[in-house]
Amino acid sequence: MSTYAVGALALCVIGGGVLWYVQSRDTTTVVPSPTAIAPGDRPWIEVVTDSGMLTDTTGATSTLQTGDEVSAGDSIKTNATGVVLVHFADGSFAQLDPNSSVTITQADYDQSSGAANVDLSLSTGTLWSKVLDLVGISSSWKVETSNAVATVRGTSFGTVVTSGETKVLGIEHTVAVTPLQPATHQPLATSTETDVTPNAQVTISDRQIPSLASGKARLLATAASAAITTSATYKKFNNRAAQFDTIRDSLTAKLGNGAEFRKEFREAQVANFKNQILERRTATYTQHKQELDDRVNVNQPPTTNPKTQPVLPSTPASTSVVSSTDTPSTTIHPVSLVVTSDQDLSAGTTDGDTVAFHATLIFSDNSKKDVTATVKWNVINNVGIFATPGTFQAQLSSNAAELGVVPGAVYATFTGSDGKELNAASTEFNVHAFVPPQTTTNG
Question: Does the residue 324 lie in any domain?
Fold first, then answer.
């Protein structure tokens, strides 16, 4: 077997500073198959201070936590103290400052070519972008506002939106800025791009648009605003950008600027947060499991009269039984639901594997009925899917697979003719990332 060692970077957070260091490791790890815009290449969140709210394409809202994945169409909004980083699949990132709101319009990444297309729409507040040099002419990174769009090929810059006014600040290399008609969101017919260089800025306000459109005024760059460049969040962004550059330069020196560099760079960006993400997913599983337990246990049948309680059968491994909330009756009726699996899951299962689960109703006379095909199957912690009723397929996103192992469980819900529900969950099990077998080569 031929293997080779490359430098991997680990991020250590010490107080307000961050130290990056390089350590050798074997590279025979999971390499995602080269699929364009594959699941798992979604942007993911790092909460720096406080938090932010996510609104997805259905309008549902949730509080963001480190390790959460987001998708095109999702909107992120921070409160008065919230600072959130959005990491993208190629290793680039954007920092959203307090009292800011951004929508991820596009976030595509092709693992086979390294091409990335990111389009962010900033409606209010401040967004800082740190972009890895983009691959190929098809790649792009844009930040749009109501009256401007900033486009880069690989640089760092800031965008600030307040009450119909857009400021674009250059930090590294050049940013191309184009004014837009607020009503149509289209470039002005008479306007050309304006380049913004480091330590400069352009300001575009709605009231300037008619003059710019008629050619009576030109969009000129001025010195960057000291109020912005001395802010705490600007310094926070610059610190993180410097760490970004350290990783990039170290890996470029070792690996060049090809596919292996981009793979290692992406993994280095995630390395320090693996434990945080795993803790987050474990906590989410525990919370969801507790919510399920509370849901079915809130009105448990009384236990004062043993004669009215069903005698439940012993359950095999990988089984959890939750009792019915129905009122005991002399009529034969369902009293509990049992979930079992065809295999012992104490050692977990592996990404891509299929596990058969069964749901069985237990009646008050101890008779049983298989209801696998009629119950609603659900997965706790997004560790897989049900391809068909009872057929669970372990499925981790690429980001989750990088953690190595993620805890989860499944549960079934049976709804009776009277509308009452019975719920049962499997025991917790781990889903392990799939590691391709190593191949032996001669020489």
Answer: yes
Whole-prediction pTM: 0.61
Condensed to tens digits (0 to 9), the pLDDT of residues 227-265 reads 888 999 999 999 999 989 998 999 999 988 888 888 888
Phi, psi of 161 (to 5 degrees): -125, 125
Q: Quick one: residue 96, left, alpha or beta (phi over 0 = left, psi -120 to 50 = alpha)?
A: beta
**CB under 8 A, 24+ apart: contacts of 338-344:** 338/313, 338/362, 338/424, 339/410, 339/411, 339/412, 339/424, 339/425, 339/426, 340/315, 340/316, 341/426, 343/318, 344/317, 344/318
pLDDT at residue number 402: 63
- Structural domain range at position 340: 276-432
Q: What's the alpha-carbon Rg for the chain, to the nearest Å?
A: 27
Q: What is the DSSP string of 38-81?
A: -TT-S-EEEEEES-EEEE-TTS-EEE--TT-B--TT-EEEE-TT
Total number of domains constituting the chain? 2
Query: Is residue 261 located within the same domain as residue 348?
Result: no
Nearby residues of 330 by Cβ (< 8 Å), 6 or more positions away: none
Burial (CB count <10 Å: 0-12, 13-18, 19+), residue 137: exposed
Going by C-alpha positions, the residue among 431, 347, 434, 352 that lies closest to residue 29 is 434
Residue 439 lies in a domain: no
145-176 burial, b at 16+ Cβ within 10 Å, e below that, comes to bbbbbbebbebbbbbbbeeebbbbbbbbbebb
CATH code for the domain of 213: 2.60.120.1440
pLDDT at 145 over 80: yes
Higher pLDDT, 151 or 89: 151
Provide the pLDDT for residue 302.
40
CA triple 45-430-374, angle to 5 deg: 100
Q: Are 87 and 273 in contact (CB under 8 A)?
A: no
Express each pLDDT in 151-189 by its tens digit.
998 899 999 999 889 999 999 999 999 999 999 999 987
